[in-house]
Amino acid sequence: MEDIIKVAARSRTTAVAGAIAGVVRESDRANVQAIGAGAVNQAVKACAIARGYLEEDGINVIVIPIFVEVMIGDQERTAMRLIVEPR
Amino acid sequence: MEDIIKVAARSRTTAVAGAIAGVVRESDRANVQAIGAGAVNQAVKACAIARGYLEEDGINVIVIPIFVEVMIGDQERTAMRLIVEPR
Predict the structure, then answer these.
(1) CB contact (8 A) between residue B48 and residue A80
(2) Interface predicted TM-score of the whole assembly (ipTM), two decimals
């Protein structure tokens, strides 16, 4: 089971980007998850910033966006999962 | 100069996904652009749906998110550009 980087609407994009870059360097792939427009927006911006960080290390990452169903309390919600991995 | 698929917060995700899939089939790459959280959210969802459409054609697309500066009237705004192309 891989760890998931959960992003909220108030998450700082550079902090999330740093986490993404760290996980990609260590385990080759990061799973980023967000629910709702504000959170998805922060997550995508963080991926763009992380691309820059990883390019400096010669790592060219791409994003694969997929829908996942998650349980929040007793409610099923659709989350956006952004898989970040080397091309 | 490649065409840009502009996405708004009120854009229908399946319509945008259809446009993305069509452009990728024809010209191998689609440029999707959104400004603001609502629009970026719709754009990412459309990319996830387009991935499904294109998988049916045996095309595995990935997303490269980058920031671009655009002029809206006389104001410079930062847009999110999502480049969708085969892996």
Answers:
(1) yes
(2) 0.94
What CATH number should be reported for the domain whose range is B4-86?
Answer: 3.30.110.20
Distance to chain B for A1, nearest Cα, Å: 22
Q: Where are the domains of chain B?
A: 4-86
Confidence of residue A1 (pLDDT cuts 50, 70, 90): low
**Tens-digit pLDDT profile for residues A12-32:** 999 999 999 999 999 999 999
Instruction: Kindly report the three-state secondary structure assignment for every residue of chain A.
Output: CCCEEEECCCCCHHHHHHHHHHHHHHHCCEEEEECCHHHHHHHHHHHHHHHHHHHCCCCCEEEEEEEEEEEECCEEEEEEEEEEEEC
CB contact under 8 A, A51 and B41: no
Among all residues of chain A, which has the CA nearest to that of B66?
A: A48
Residues of A in contact with B40 (CB under 8 A): 37, 40-41, 44-45
Given an 8 Å threshold on Cβ–Cβ distance, is A65 in contact with B80? no
pLDDT at A82 over 60: yes
Question: Per the CB < 8 Å rule, is B41 touching A40?
Answer: yes
